[in-house]
Amino acid sequence: MTEGFFVHPTSIVDRDVEIGAGTKIWHFCHVSSGARLGKNCVLGQNCYIGADVVIGDGCKLQNNVSVYARVTLEEGVFCGPSCVFTNDLTPRALFPKGSSADWVPTLCRRGSTIGANATVICGVVLGEHSMVGAGAVVTRDVHDFALVVGVPAMLVGWVCACGQRLELPPATPKPLAASCTACGRRYELKNGGLTALDAIAH
Question: Taking the model in full, what pTM does it have?
Answer without folding.
Answer: 0.94
